[in-house]
Amino acid sequence: MSTIVLLTLTGLGLSALYFLVASGLSLVFGLADVLNFAHGLFLSAGAYATWWAAGHLPGASAGGPGFVLAVAFGVLAGALVGALVELVLIRPLYARPIEQVLVTVGLSLAGVALLQAAWGADARTFPRPRWTRGVTGVLGANVPNSGLLLVAAAGVVLVALLVFLRRTRYGLVIRAGVENREMVTALGIDVRRAFTLVFAIGGAAAALAGALGGVYFGSVSPGQGGSLLIFAFIVVVIGGMGSVVGSAYAAVAVGLLQQFVNYYGTAGAGDVCVVALLALVLLFRPQGIAGKVATA
């Protein structure tokens, strides 16, 4: 029983990490129709900014206000990078999807090279607060606190996004833009500001994933964002393009499937099963779990 509890909770921790990356990715695609392959750069920027800030703030490695400020600095860095990418590189290319893909792929590669040039290609030890290195007993299982932190953070982000999308003016504009961008533009609403805001929100969520992912894995590396981005794309497709709730459902399914199959099967079998799940969804429900069927 304790093994099942441990696998479930650690799987949910992995799911939370996937959701934090996928939530902003889903919003960006749903509103702006941009397949942002540079989204992993936002994660890496947040991770390295948090790592740098934690090394310069007193007491950050012990937890408390110093660590919280370091994470906030990383989230702000991710949001700024996301907004700048949209303003400088994506905005001139909204009507040119092929160029969008080329630019975001190129930016992703350039970002990794830039991080390697600044801090080297080797992984850096992340300054984990002491309390995240411990475990908490849950139904006889010793669950790492870092995984529980990820689950709590993902829950807060999910609630905050839903409140923002359903209760604020910009949130309503974003939801309307996801449904029918042409109609929103015809009503005289400038959706360009919403585009920039969505990129900033996506960058902030990805940066938070980078910061807490550093705590979870104990290290940070230039290519970490790219490896997590692959599973984030899978989560977005399974959940339904543009659906934050669908991304949450899909992240839970992917994380738990991966964790259980990797434990009870051979190494890497969980990744194969995740790809198989993606194939099944594309075959039998191509719009995703929470996506809507396209109408002519």
Task: Describe what you observe in this structure.
The chain is mainly α and 296 residues long. Helices cover 74% and strands 4% of the residues. It has helices spanning 2-32, 39-56, 65-90, 97-119, 145-167, 169-179, 181-186, 191-217, 224-239, 244-264, 269-284; strands at 124-125, 135-138, 141-144, 219-220. The strands form 2 sheets. The chain has a two-stranded antiparallel sheet with strand order 1-4. Strands 2-3 form a two-stranded antiparallel sheet. The chain is globular and about 60 Å long. The N and C termini lie far apart (50 Å).
List the helices and strands and how they pair.
Blueprint: H1 2-32, H2 39-56, H3 65-90, H4 97-119, E1 124-125, E2 135-138, E3 141-144, H5 145-167, H6 169-179, H7 181-186, H8 191-217, E4 219-220, H9 224-239, H10 244-264, H11 269-284
Antiparallel strand pairs: 1-4, 2-3
Helix pairs in contact: 1-5, 1-6, 1-8, 1-9, 1-10, 2-3, 2-4, 2-8, 2-9, 3-8, 5-6, 5-8, 6-8, 9-10, 10-11
The residue-averaged pLDDT reads 85
Rg is 19 Å
The tally of strands reads: 4
Q: Strand order across the biggest sheet? A: 1-4
| Series of secondary-structure elements, N-terminal to C-terminal | HHHHEEEHHHHEHHH
Q: What's the level 1 CATH class?
A: Mainly Alpha
What proportion of the residues is helical, as a percent range?
Answer: over 70%
* First-last Cα distance: 50 Å
Dominant shape: globular
Count of domain modules? 1
Structural class: mainly alpha
Main beta sheet: strand number and arrangement? 2 strands, antiparallel
CATH architecture: Orthogonal Bundle
Low-pLDDT windows of residues: none
The CATH topology is what? Answer: ABC transporter involved in vitamin B12 uptake, BtuC
